[in-house]
Amino acid sequence: MTVQRASARLLSEIRRSHTVYSFIEVISPTQERVRLPAIGGDVSCDRTAAIRRTCKASCVDPLGTLVPSDVTSLLTPYGTELRPYRGVRYAPTPEHPDGEIEALPLGVFRLAKVNISDGTGGSPDIQLEAFDLSRTVARDKFISPYVIETGTNIIDAIKAILARTFDDLSYDAISTTRTTTAPRLYDVADDPWDAVTVLAQSLGCDIYFDVEGWVVIAPPPDIDALPSPDFTYIEGERCTMLDLSRVLTDEPGFNGVVITGESPGDELPAVRAVAWDEEPTSATYHLGPYGEVPQFITDQLIKTQEEAQATADQLLRNLLGFSSQLSISGIVNPAYEAGAVVEVVRARSHVSGLYVVDSFNVPLDAKGTQSLSLRQKRNSG
To answer: Does pTM surpass 0.90?
Structure first.
C-alpha cells in the first residue's frame, strides 16, 4: 500500500489549514475495545529496520479508568493491541453538521511498555510503547528444531512459520512456483522473523506487516515503472514542505548485485547472475566514473539462471539511490507507506526529482510535523 489508499479529498485538504483528527483504538486479548485520546507521540516506519513500525503515545487519565490496577487491566503489555489513526475533520455541512471525519489506520501494534507518571496534582500521565507484529513473531523463538521439507513452496513455508505465532493472518503476497530443494533446518532459539525475511529475500521480495495488519510479501517498488508520484513537494503555493537537507555519500554505495544460487539436495550446478545500474545518466552507472561496487549474496533456494537473474534485478531496486539522500519535514500526510514515491522540487537547493520514501513518522498530535527520509532513483522528466 502507498499513499493512494487516501482519498483525493484528504490529500487536497492537508495542503491547507485543516482540523486534525486522531485516536488510538485499544483492543484487549478478549477483544474489549476502547478508543483512547492521545495527546502526543507518533508512529514511525522504517523500511530498512528489522521491526518496520513502532508506536509511542502519550495520554492522560482524568477519570482514573485507564491506569492499570493489575496484569488483567487493559493497558498492560500482555497481548493488548494498539491501532492508531490519524486524519482530518472536514468543515461542517448540512449533511454533516459536526464535520465529516476521514481517518487512516497507521498500523497494528502489540503493546510492549507502559510508563505511568503521577505527580502532585493533575491526572496521571501514561506513556505507551508498541511495535508491529513482526516483533511478536521474532520473540516467538523456535523451541525445538524446525524443518522445512524438500519441495515446499517458499510462500507456503513462510506462512507456516508465521502460523506458529498467528494462525489467522491475512496475506497480500505474490505467487511463486519456487520450492526448496533440500530440507531447511532452524535450530532452537533461532529467530522466526529472520527466517521468513531470508525466505522472502530469495524471491526478491520485502516482507512486512502493513497498516491493516496484513502480511505483505512483494518486490520493492520500481520507480521507473510508475507513471506518476504518489505525492508532491513542489515549491510554490500549497507546498507542504517546511525544510530539507541533502546528503551525498558513497556509503553503502552498491550499484550492483551478484547472486550465487546454490541448491543443496539436487544435482544442479550452482548458478550466478549479475545486475548492475545500467542507466547512463545515473551517478552510480557501473560503466561511469563511479565504478562498480557489487553486493554479493548466496542463496540456497535459487535453482535456475532465470530465478537468479530475476532476484538480482529486484534486489537492485532496493540499493540504487542511497548515494543521493534527502531529508524533509513538512505538514503531516498520514497516508504513507514506506516505498511510496514522491516528487520534490526546490530550485535553490538544486533538488528536482523522484524519491522513494524509506522512513517517516506520523505525529498523533495536531502540532507535530512529519519527517521523511528519501533516496533518489532518477531525475524527474
So the answer is: no
